[in-house]
Automatic annotation (TrEMBL):
Alphabetized PANTHER family for the sequence: SERINE CARBOXYPEPTIDASE CPVL-RELATED, SERINE PROTEASE FAMILY S10 SERINE CARBOXYPEPTIDASE
GO molecular function: serine-type carboxypeptidase activity
Annotated protein name in UniProt: Carboxypeptidase
InterPro entries given in the database record: Peptidase_S10, Ser_caboxypep_his_AS, Ser_caboxypep_ser_AS
Transmembrane segments: 370-394
Alphabetized PROSITE patterns for the sequence: CARBOXYPEPT_SER_HIS, CARBOXYPEPT_SER_SER
Record keywords, A-Z: Carboxypeptidase, Glycoprotein, Hydrolase, Membrane, Protease, Signal, Transmembrane, Transmembrane helix
Domain of life: Eukaryota
Length: 421
């Protein structure tokens, strides 16, 4: 999405064909502290929750517009992928509410853009269902990982961050061992390390570091300390912040179809079932339409009530990397407020979109709903009752026949009646 890309073969940078910078000004921030070239000399400098993380970004933006005041009125969209789905809503809310402890931030916030966001944990806890739907495991495989998945789901419900973090890692490790799936970001790709890390050779060159004013700071692609410090925030749910923002700003959530870590369907179902905001019905009643780009279906879009939800076809967790042209098209249409084009022979039918059905129950890690469990219990009770009735009738018939066809005295009749009762 940036203006340049690194060519590992020539060891040079070149202009990126589908850079967002062609139409918009971009500001990239290494976040949280400890990622990229951002740094701290103290353990206390690492963030431990999304509020602190958003506070750092809020303060950075205040300093930025102080240096470039001409940008205060420019339409601002805050964007990020994956874990950014946890701190972007917190940042958006701080901007909206103008955090009094940090000072006023005079910017023109227009919207939030999130790719494959991890807003909460319970809506994407059912990894066995995702792996089974893709054919990576069968029902026996799902049964094999059930203890780990149940333990993970239970830790989430109990809001036990450390246990949830531990069981999630064990669950994903087990799934990778079973399937020999090399990485979780894109089911169709074996290796992502090359495209993800090849640029490091360039940005760590002394001449480049001097040009971007980072001095002798070491570049960190993956910082274990950052990860560790955020474990106490692992199961926090930021969905309520997104719902608050939807009352005032438009939000785009796009998702790569081939992602195993933050699966599209489970996330979408959670939004439809649990999110509440003033324009919710407008979103639910909006038809889900195919998105047409370059003479083919690029994905599927559902937009209404200030929320736009897009599934990007053929992309994984890192959509801008997998589908740069389609992503450029999507961002451009969203920011400009245009509807994404649909196929030429496709006729949208908003009136034929049925009401969204929401079950009263919640789905657990095993996939069984409360309603299904109740139904099973009712059927078991019905079978037991029927069986008891059959036994009762047979015993009654036997005793009746004994009464009419046998020589019995009054005592035996009384005993028969007492036994039957």
């Amino acid at each position: 999405m940036g203006p340049f890309e690194y060519d590992a073969a020539t060891k040079k940078i070149k202009a990126r064909q589908w850079s967002w910078a062609k139409n918009y000004s971009l500001l990239f921030i290494d976040n949280p502290v400890g990622a990229g070239f951002s740094f701290t000399n103290s353990k206390e400098g690492f963030v431990r929750d999304m509020d602190s993380c958003a506070g750092h970004l809020y303060d950075a933006l205040r300093q930025f517009v102080a240096i470039f005041p001409e940008l205060k009125k420019a339409p601002l969209y805050i964007a990020g992928e994956s874990y950014a789905g946890r701190y972007l809503p917190a940042l958006g809310l701080k901007i909206h509410q103008q955090d009094p402890l940090l000072g006023k931030l005079d910017v023109n916030l227009q919207g939030v853009i999130m790719g494959n966001p991890v807003l909460n944990r319970d809506s994407i806890a059912n990894y066995s269902a995702v792996f089974q739907q893709w054919g990576l495991i069968d029902s026996q495989g799902a049964e094999a990982i059930k203890p780990l998945q149940d333990a993970y789901y239970d830790a989430i419900k109990k809001e036990n961050d450390e246990k949830a973090f531990e069981f999630r890692n064990k669950l994903l490790d087990k799934l990778q061992d079973m399937t020999v799936q090399p990485q979780m970001f894109n089911i169709l790709k074996d290796d992502l390390n090359g495209p993800l890390t090849s640029f490091i050779e360039f940005v760590t060159r002394p001449v480049v570091k001097e040009a971007i004013h980072v001095g002798n700071i070491e570049f960190t692609f993956s910082n274990g300390s950052v990860h560790e410090m955020l474990i106490p925030d692992f199961v926090s749910d930021v969905s309520s912040k997104v719902m608050t923002l939807l009352e005032h700003y438009k939000i785009l959530i796009y998702c790569g179809q081939l992602d195993l870590t933050a699966p599209c369907v489970q996330n979408a179902q959670a939004r439809r079932s649990h999110w509440q905001w003033s324009y919710r019905e407008d979103f639910l009643k909006a038809p889900r339409k195919p998105w047409w780009y370059n003479n083919s279906v690029a994905g599927y879009v559902k937009s209404g009530g200030r929320l736009t939800e897009v599934l990007v076809r053929g992309a994984g967790h890192l959509v801008p990397m997998d589908k740069p042209a389609q992503m450029h098209n999507l961002i451009d249409y969203f920011i400009r407020g245009f509807d994404l084009p649909f196929p030429p022979n496709y006729i949208p039918s908003p009136d034929e979109t049925p009401d969204y059905f929401i079950e009263d129950s919640t789905e657990g890690s095993t996939g069984l709903t409360v309603g299904l469990i109740v139904s099973i219990m009712f059927n078991i009770l019905l079978i037991v009752s029927f069986g008891a009735g059959v036994i009762y009738v047979l015993r009654w018939k036997s005793r009746t026949e004994a009464y009419f066809y046998s020589n019995v005295d009054e005592t035996s009749i009384s005993e028969s009646v007492l036994t039957m009762s």
